[in-house]
C-alpha cells in the first residue's frame, strides 16, 4: 500500500518534523513497506482470537493514594531552556 | 426560517478533578495554589524512563460515579495515549481512556418545564489533567506551571439529548450535585476543578439528521454556559439562513464580547493518533469491588429531594434548597428528629439560618449550636415564650456564641409576657386612657385597632404575646 507524499507530510506535521523533499520520498517508501507488512498480517483469520492490547499479561498494579515528596522546583526546572521564577518559559502561546 | 424553526441539539462533556491526595500516576500532591512547579516529579514532568503507577482511589471514584449515574461498569478497561503537542503537556501525549472506557451507558434525570427528562450518559473515563499556561502580560512569553499536570480527571460525556440552553444548565447543575454528593469533586467551576465543554448543532425542526456541530470551550460558569449556547444557536441559524454551512470547529466563549470565536489553532490537533498505552496494562475491576462500591453509595440528590417531599411533606421548592448540599440536608434531618413541624423548621432554615450562614460566611460544619437547641428555640416560639421576632435574635446569638436558647432568652430579657392577667391590666389601662378612640372604634372605625395594639405593645416594651394582646383587645372592645 503506497503512502502518498501528502500523507507523509501530514504525519510529519503532526510529529513536528521538518522533512526535506528527499526525506519525504524516502519515508514514503519506508512507511509504505511497514504498512504492507501489517496488511499481510491482516489477511490472517483471527475471528476467534481476542484482541491483544498488551504483550505482557501483567495485572494492573495500583498504588495507595498517598503523597510522596516532589522534586524541589530548582531541580524540576534544571533542564529548562528558559524559565521565569519557578515557571517554565516558552514562546508566547497565541490563541 | 426564524430561529424557532430550528431544533438545537446539545451534548456536554464534563471534566471533573477528583478529590485525591496525590496525582493519578505519581505521588505528587494535588493541592491547589502551590508555588509553580512545586508539586512535580520525574513522572509528571515526563522525564525519560519513568513509569506511571495508577492511584487506586481514582478507580474507586470512577466506579462510584459510574454507579451513581447508572452506568455499566466495565470489568476491563484500557488506557490509551492521545498524542498532541502543547506546552502544558510534558510527555507530548495524555494518558487517557479511548475505545474502552471504565463506564458506559448511564443516565441522569433533570427537571424541565415539561417535567422530568432522562439525559443519557454515553461514557465516563479516567485521564490525567494537563498543566497550566499563564500568559505573561509583560512580554513575549508564556509561563508553564505543571502542578496540575497529572491531577486525576473524570471525563463524563452525555449523549446529544439536550435541546436548549436551559436543559444544558439543568444537566450541569444536576451533574455537579451528584459529584459533590459522592465526594469525588468539589464542584468549583470558577477555579476550574469542574469544567464543561458543549457540543452544539442545529437542524430544521422535524429533521432526523443532526447538523454540523461546534465545540464550545471556556464555559466556567452556569451563566456563561447558557449565554454561549444561546449565542451559538443563533450564530449557526444565521449561517444556515444566509446560505452558508456550519464548519465543525472548536470555538471559544469570549466573556467580554459575549460571542463565541473560532480557535483555528486547535483544528489540525484533532488527529490524535490514539493507541494503547504500553506502560499500563489493562485495568481490571472485580465484581466484589463493584458490589462494595454499590453498597457504599450515599443517597443521591434527586432521591433525597423526593424523600424530603414525601417524608417531611415539604414543598418541592423547600426540598430542593435543603437538599442542594449534603451537610445542610443532614443538619435539617438531625433537627427534624427533635422537632415535628417540618415546614416550620424549613422556614427557619430557608430564612434565618441560611441568611446567617451567608452573612457570617460560616460553614455548616462550624455551627456552634446543636439540632436539639434549634428545636428548643422553635418550641419556645411555639409556646409563646418568645415572639417570632425575638426568636430570630436568639438564633443569631446561638449562631455567634453557641449559648443555649433558654440562657439567651433569660440574659437578654427576651421572654414574652403570656400571663393573661398582666396583659389584661395593661389593656384596661390603655382603653381607659383612650376613651375617645374607643368610641370611634365602637362607632365602626375599625382601623383604630392597630393603634390600641401599638399602645399596649409599647407599654409592655414589645414583650406582650401578640396573640393574647389581640384576643384581649377584641374581647374588651366587644368584638
TrEMBL record, chain A:
One of its GO terms (molecular function) is ATP binding. Keywords: ATP-binding, Ligase, Nucleotide-binding, Protein biosynthesis, Transferase. Its EC number is 6.3.5.-. The keyword ATP-binding applies. InterPro entries: Asp/Glu-ADT_sf_sub_c, GatC. It is an enzyme of class 6 (ligase). One of its GO terms (biological process) is glutaminyl-tRNAGln biosynthesis via transamidation. Heterotrimer of A, B and C subunits. Belongs to the GatC family. This is Aspartyl/glutamyl-tRNA(Asn/Gln) amidotransferase subunit C. It comes from Pyxidicoccus fallax. The gene is gatC.
From TrEMBL, chain B:
It comes from the Bacteria. PROSITE patterns: GATB. The keyword Transferase applies. It catalyses: L-glutamyl-tRNA(Gln) + L-glutamine + ATP + H2O = L-glutaminyl-tRNA(Gln) + L-glutamate + ADP + phosphate + H(+); L-aspartyl-tRNA(Asn) + L-glutamine + ATP + H2O = L-asparaginyl-tRNA(Asn) + L-glutamate + ADP + phosphate + 2 H(+). GO terms for molecular function: ATP binding; glutaminyl-tRNA synthase (glutamine-hydrolyzing) activity; transferase activity. Keywords: ATP-binding, Ligase, Nucleotide-binding, Protein biosynthesis, Transferase. Residues 330-477 form the Asn/Gln amidotransferase domain. It is an enzyme of class 6 (ligase). Pfam families: GatB_N, GatB_Yqey. Heterotrimer of A, B and C subunits. Belongs to the GatB/GatE family. GatB subfamily. This is Aspartyl/glutamyl-tRNA(Asn/Gln) amidotransferase subunit B.
Amino acid at each position: 500500500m503506497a503512502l502518498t507524499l501528502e500523507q507523509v507530510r501530514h504525519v510529519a506535521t503532526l510529529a513536528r518534523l521538518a522533512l526535506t523533499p528527499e526525506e519525504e520520498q524516502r519515508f514514503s517508501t519506508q512507511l509504505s513497506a511497514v504498512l504492507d507488512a501489517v496488511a499481510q498480517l491482516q489477511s490472517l483469520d483471527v475471528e476467534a482470537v481476542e484482541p491483544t492490547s498488551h504483550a505482557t499479561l501483567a495485572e494492573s498494579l495500583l498504588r495507595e493514594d498517598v503523597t510522596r515528596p516532589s522534586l524541589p522546583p530548582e531541580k524540576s526546572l534544571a533542564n529548562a531552556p528558559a524559565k521565569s521564577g519557578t515557571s517554565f518559559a516558552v514562546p508566547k502561546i497565541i490563541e | 426560517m426564524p430561529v424557532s424553526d430550528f431544533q438545537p441539539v446539545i451534548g456536554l462533556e464534563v471534566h471533573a478533578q477528583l478529590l485525591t491526595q496525590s496525582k493519578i500516576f505519581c505521588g505528587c500532591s494535588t493541592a491547589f495554589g502551590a508555588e509553580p512547579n512545586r508539586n512535580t516529579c520525574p513522572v509528571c514532568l515526563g522525564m525519560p524512563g519513568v513509569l506511571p503507577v495508577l492511584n487506586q482511589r481514582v478507580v474507586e471514584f470512577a466506579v462510584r460515579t459510574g454507579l451513581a449515574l447508572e452506568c455499566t461498569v466495565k470489568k476491563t478497561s484500557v488506557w490509551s495515549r492521545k498524542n498532541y503537542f502543547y506546552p502544558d503537556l510534558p510527555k507530548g501525549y495524555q494518558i487517557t481512556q479511548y475505545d474502552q472506557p471504565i463506564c458506559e451507558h448511564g443516565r441522569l434525570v433533570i427537571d424541565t418545564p415539561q417535567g422530568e427528562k432522562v439525559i443519557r450518559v454515553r461514557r465516563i473515563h479516567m485521564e490525567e489533567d494537563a498543566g497550566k499556561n499563564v500568559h505573561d502580560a509583560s512580554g513575549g512569553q508564556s509561563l508553564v506551571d505543571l502542578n496540575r499536570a497529572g491531577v486525576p480527571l473524570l471525563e463524563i460525556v452525555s449523549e446529544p439529548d439536550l435541546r436548549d440552553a436551559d436543559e444544558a444548565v439543568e444537566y450541569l447543575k444536576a451533574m455537579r450535585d451528584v459529584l459533590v454528593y459522592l465526594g469525588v469533586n468539589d464542584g468549583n467551576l470558577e477555579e476550574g476543578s469542574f469544567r464543561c465543554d458543549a457540543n452544539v448543532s442545529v437542524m430544521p425542526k422535524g429533521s432526523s439528521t443532526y447538523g454540523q456541530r461546534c465545540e464550545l470551550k471556556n464555559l466556567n460558569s452556569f451563566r456563561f454556559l447558557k449565554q454561549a449556547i444561546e449565542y451559538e444557536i443563533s450564530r449557526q441559524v444565521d449561517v444556515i439562513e444566509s446560505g452558508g454551512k456550519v464548519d465543525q470547529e472548536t470555538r471559544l466563549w469570549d466573556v467580554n464580547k459575549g460571542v463565541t470565536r473560532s480557535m483555528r489553532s486547535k483544528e489540525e490537533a484533532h488527529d490524535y493518533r490514539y493507541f494503547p498505552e504500553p506502560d499500563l496494562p489493562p485495568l481490571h475491576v472485580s465484581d466484589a469491588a463493584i458490589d462494595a462500591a454499590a453498597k457504599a453509595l450515599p443517597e443521591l440528590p434527586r432521591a433525597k429531594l423526593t424523600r424530603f417531599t414525601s417524608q417531611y411533606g415539604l414543598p418541592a421548592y423547600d426540598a430542593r434548597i435543603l437538599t442542594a448540599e449534603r451537610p445542610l440536608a443532614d443538619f435539617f434531618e438531625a433537627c427534624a428528629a427533635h422537632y415535628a413541624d417540618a415546614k416550620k423548621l424549613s422556614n427557619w432554615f430557608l430564612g434565618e439560618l441560611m441568611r446567617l450562614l451567608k452573612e457570617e460566611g460560616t460553614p455548616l460544619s462550624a455551627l456552634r449550636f446543636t439540632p436539639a437547641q434549634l428545636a428548643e428555640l422553635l418550641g419556645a416560639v411555639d409556646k409563646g415564650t418568645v415572639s417570632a421576632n425575638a426568636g430570630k435574635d436568639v438564633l443569631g446569638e446561638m449562631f455567634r456564641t453557641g449559648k443555649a436558647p433558654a440562657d439567651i432568652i433569660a440574659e437578654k430579657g427576651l421572654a414574652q409576657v403570656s400571663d393573661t392577667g398582666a396583659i389584661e391590666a395593661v389593656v384596661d389601662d390603655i382603653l381607659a386612657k383612650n376613651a375617645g378612640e374607643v368610641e370611634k372604634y365602637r362607632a365602626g372605625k375599625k382601623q383604630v385597632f392597630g393603634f390600641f395594639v401599638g399602645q399596649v405593645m409599647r407599654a409592655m416594651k414589645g414583650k406582650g404575646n401578640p396573640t393574647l394582646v389581640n384576643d384581649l383587645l377584641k374581647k374588651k372592645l366587644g368584638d
